[in-house]
Design brief:
single chain, mainly beta, Alpha-Beta Plaits, four-stranded antiparallel beta sheet
């Protein structure tokens, strides 16, 4: 009988990011690792990209890494395998600080696809305690009462031009009190920049 090996799944190309059900740093290696002949285990990482307009994170696979893992804030490094029957790619959390170390830890278990018998667990580098995902933009709804000029948005953009991530745009207007709401994303918090007291900034 072969040993069943459970591990921490980081990501797969079908369901994408795999969340630890028990929370950061306290999950269980509950996913059965499948790997066999033709599954091509290799070092890989996923890197995050934050979309400030809709507040979501997209993960991109950096596959078949050679040498060393690229240094990217928030990246998650591991060993990827491709299921030759479905072409699904899965990234596993494996202990080790270099691609070579991780691959050496993973290769001995890459000989079992439908195993029964003893149960073992593969140690991971993170085990659900992942590095923080950097937020490279701070997005706000800004409410204020303008003076009615047509170039108000342009003047607003000019004031914060050095800090803009994209161009601000109007999202609402209240004819009752003349207030306007802009959506703006900056590369640093507004508290570090400063704003007129007549403007209400709400982080979104």
């Amino acid at each position: 009988m072969a040993t069943v090996t459970n591990g921490f799944k980081i990501w797969d190309s079908t369901n994408f990011i795999s969340c630890c059900s028990a929370g950061s740093g306290s999950g269980d290696p509950s996913n059965v690792i499948q790997c066999g002949e033709g599954w091509n285990p290799r070092p890989a990482q996923i890197t995050p990209k934050y979309n400030c307009d809709i507040g979501t994170i997209t993960w991109f696979l950096n596959d078949n890494i050679t040498g060393s893992y690229p240094s990217v804030d928030g990246a998650r490094n591991g060993i990827a395998v491709t299921n030759p029957m479905t072409n699904e790619v899965t990234l596993w959390d494996v202990t080790g600080s270099t691609p070579a170390e991780k691959l050496a830890e993973f290769l001995p278990i890459c000989n079992c696809t439908d195993c029964t018998g003893n149960v073992d667990s593969l140690a991971g580098e993170y085990e659900c305690d992942y590095p923080d995902v950097p937020v490279d933009a701070y997005c706000y709804n800004v409410v204020f009462v303008g003076d009615g000029r047509d170039n108000t948005l342009k003047l607003f953009a000019m004031r914060y031009n050095a800090y803009l991530v994209g161009y601000p745009f109007q999202t609402a207007y209240n004819p009752t009190n003349g207030s306007t709401t802009y959506r703006v994303c900056l590369n640093r918090p507004i508290a570090q920049i400063g704003n007129p007291s007549s403007q209400t900034w709400t982080l979104v």
